[in-house]
Design a protein that fits this description.
The complex is a heterodimer.
Chain A lengths: L1 E10 L2 E12 L4 E9 L5 H19 L7 E8 L2 H4 L25 H13 L4 E6 L5 E3 L2 E5 L3 H10 L6 E5 L9 H7 L3 E6 L8 H17 L18 E4 L4 E4 L5 E5 L6 E2 L4 E6 L6 E6 L4 E7 L3 E2 L4 E7 L1
Parallel strand pairs in A: 3-4, 3-5, 5-9, 7-8, 8-10
Antiparallel strand pairs in A: 1-2, 2-4, 6-16, 7-9, 11-18, 12-14, 12-17, 13-16, 14-15, 16-18
Chain B lengths: L1 E9 L3 E11 L7 E5 L8 H15 L7 E5 L4 H6 L23 H13 L4 E7 L4 E10 L3 H9 L5 E5 L9 H7 L4 E7 L6 H17 L14 E4 L3 E5 L4 E5 L6 E2 L4 E7 L4 E7 L4 E7 L3 E2 L4 E7 L3
Parallel strand pairs in B: 3-4, 3-5, 5-8, 6-7, 7-9
Antiparallel strand pairs in B: 1-2, 2-4, 6-8, 6-15, 10-17, 11-13, 11-16, 12-15, 13-14, 15-17
Helix pairs in contact in B: 1-6
The chains are: A alpha/beta, B alpha/beta.
Amino acid sequence: MRRGIVFQMEVPHREPMRIRGFEFGNDRGVRACAIVGSTRGNEVQQTFICARLVAMLANLERDGMIDAHVNILVLPCVNPFSMNVHQRFWPVERSDINRSFPGDADGGTTERIAASILRVAQTYEQGIQLCSFSQQGDFLPHVRITYQGPISDRSVELARDFCLPYVVTRMPTAYDESTLNYVWQQSGTHAFSLYSKATDRIDKGSADLVADAVLRFLVARGVLTAAAERVARQGSKTIPLAESDLVDLRTKRSAGFLITTVRVGDRVRKGQKLAQVFDAFDTHVLETLQSPVNGRVFFMRTDSLVQQHMVVLRIAPE
Amino acid sequence: MLQTVFTAMLPIGESLVVQKNRMSGVRSSGPRIAVVTGMYGDELEGQFVAYELVRRLNENPLSLTGVVDVYPALNPLGISSLEHGVPQFDIDLERTFPGNPDGNLTEALADAVFRDILGARVCVVIHSSNVHVREMTQARIDEGNAKNLVDLASLLNPQIIWVRDRQPVAEPTLAHALNAKRCPTIVVEMGASTGVSMDSSSWLVEGILRLLEHLHAWTGPTIALPFPRVVRGGNVAVITASSPGLFVPRVEHGTQVRRDDVIGSIVDPLEGTTACEVRAPCNGLLFSLRAYPIAQPGSLLARILEEGL
């Protein structure tokens, strides 16, 4: 393992912001896979997963389980500046690094950071980003691909090698064109966004699950040797889904306390009661949300207060 | 007449309500014009424009020959709590349009506002600048809409009309969504965050009345500023910080500068030294100037409208 500084920026009254990189394998080898962790300051779980991967890859390298001809790069935290002050976006200017790609080395602050990451990351054949959603809640771990063109069709096939339950393809809006996932594909890298159950806290179980998925992928792609397969637990069969296939359950006519009766990953039946909204002053039931389909709970809101018009659950139909 | 555009229940005995004030003139068949502001909770220039416009129209009902809808606060929760985005959601409302009736609260709000405005003869969206940069009053128009909008925008008394190249990040905005539906929409950017520039706001109100007059919706008095300067994207020099520190401006906002003039300095408060001097790369009008003094590498310091192009 080789440690390095991928990008450094002087900032007022604080130590320089440094993006640290951890390189494995042959430093002159085929640039096989880059793994990028948190771009936002609340992505604790994503940083943790990358840190776990750094430890795992170091062990695999020591045991000779990284192919001799390849190179792997891990950037666990692209945004320590925000993470150290508990702010989701870049402080003061409130800009989002993951909406700043491809970036500009002479542009605004987050554009400079994005450009520095892309300059390194786009030299790799495959790119894995640990991502989070703006929606607060728990997700079933999955792979997500923003459709960019023919390269994405192949990426969907490759994504099965993570052996996570779902690969979700999202048709891009203009706003998605400035994400790392989209821009990575434009430069010819197969890009995969991996979503874990949690964001601003460590959920050890789903962190291990996602880290194992990355190892399975690297074994399947020949980046790790077959012997490394025993390090990662077995995954599951992958179901491809379009984002539009997911069925949303939302609060149509109420707001108040929210109590859900299922967990992420649970299988649910059509008509099953999944959540209720209670009046904030006397707890009478205002609304009951029932599953309109058979399927698995893909997303579940975790906030105990809920407004009207909010997605409480998303079901992956089966 | 006050009308509710959107309402959503909040958890503890309150609703989020977006309202508009519809003022109808003596000729009910006259054109409808929408004036929209309060998208960001910390951008307040449009609050005074809304107040003054409603006051003027109420004061002269016989001069109004069209319909004017004023939406002063699309993000009432943000304004009440001095939050840029929609509180709790950390979502930029201006990146949510045209919205989605089946989406989350902010998407449903955006959809309701969008549909309410659709069909207007012209829409004016008023933004303040952010906390970092002070702006001269400018109408911002995408290159693709310039042919239809530059003449209308010039009526609004802006100091500058900035015609910009396509910006994908701007496509989920209200203006982009409305223009895509052939509802001519002009974005006005002005002043600075969390304050009100009385002169600029008053000139914009006069400009909106000029627009109404042009559309045969107003017969009262109007006042025009000299014709604005129209600038294309490539004619703007953008100056960003190369060093971190405290930016100390050396020129007044809105003044003419010459190439190599010192616009400001970035200084180091700890060591008492000057990290760098920031110089103008060209002759021109300094129409944007940093207001928030702490600068990081890449922070926007100034924009200059290049002369002689």
